[in-house]
Amino acid sequence: MNGAQRSQTREPHVLVTGASGGLGAALARHHAALGHRLTLWGRNEERLNAVAGSCRALGAMVVTRIVDLENPTAAEHAYLEDDARDPVDIAIFNAGLSDIRAPDALTEDPERVRALGLVNYVTPSVLATVAAGKMLPRGGRIIMIGSVAAFHDLPFGTAYSGSKAGLARFSTALDLYTRPRSVPVLLVSPGFIDTPMSRRLSGARPFLVKPARAARLIVEASAQGKRHIVFPWPFHVLRIIDMLAPYRLRAALLGRVKVTQSP
Ligand SMILES: NC(=O)c1ccc[n+]([C@@H]2O[C@H](COP(=O)([O-])OP(=O)(O)OC[C@H]3O[C@@H](n4cnc5c(N)ncnc54)[C@H](OP(=O)(O)O)[C@@H]3O)[C@@H](O)[C@H]2O)c1
């Protein structure tokens, strides 16, 4: 039975990582309002239960799971268990970690670089591979939450821009293989979303998007079968400028950006 046939017989089962807050919670609530069944993953049990409660209040059936995505092997086993219980139709790999080099530090913290590599790149890539393997015989959709940081060499956030660039390339490469076989992969590259992650940053957050609006844009783009969305649109323009600008200009501009974060 393929994905289209399955969706005629039952509401989709949606798995969301990082559902305990921010964008993941908004994605969970958006799908709950559509009547979809949810499996919500997070690390903080209290926050995850609160989000699950708000989804149940919207009428959704919800299962929760505590998973630390710094452990890709445990995450892989968890995905296989959840898929065996109820085959996943839409897998949203949303969880992420950010970091900015401290102003008085010579480099980013190597432990933090490791964590960002695992949570932003290694584990979602492992999980998307596992999800694709399960979905290819039956259909399904995968959504990878990247960042516009992937488009730029951020000297103050090497681990964040590097891990998101890796994720972006992984997503589009996977999509080339799986899309013709009924499993499209959507790469999402957002600018600033008003969540705890961006609230930690000092200074302006230009073109800030509310999480509920971001969730709607993402769900619509996936339903329309898009490969990549960048929002809000000015970040598209910045991406093109970055691609066309000569190295010295890019280095001068990016070297001048000053960003700090609260703990
Ligand atoms: N906010 C922005 O401006 C922005 C911009 C571009 C891209 N993004 C991307 O959007 C996604 C969602 O971010 P957000 O803004 O919603 O951030 P957030 O509010 O900080 O939420 C991050 C989520 O990821 C989970 N997470 C982090 N580390 C984890 C780990 N080791 N194991 C399991 N779960 C973990 C958190 O779980 P717990 O809370 O339970 O620990 C939380 O649910 C991320 O991929 C982020 O990179 C955000």
TrEMBL record:
InterPro entries: NAD(P)-bd_dom_sf (IPR036291), SDR_fam (IPR002347). GO terms for cellular component: membrane. Keywords: Oxidoreductase. SUPFAM superfamilies: NAD(P)-binding Rossmann-fold domains. This is Oxidoreductase. Transmembrane segments: none annotated. It comes from the Bacteria. Gene3D superfamilies: NAD(P)-binding Rossmann-like Domain. PANTHER family: DEHYDROGENASE/REDUCTASE SDR FAMILY MEMBER 7B, DEHYDROGENASE_REDUCTASE SDR FAMILY MEMBER 7B. One of its GO terms (molecular function) is oxidoreductase activity. It comes from Tanticharoenia sakaeratensis NBRC 103193. Pfam families: adh_short. Belongs to the short-chain dehydrogenases/reductases (SDR) family.
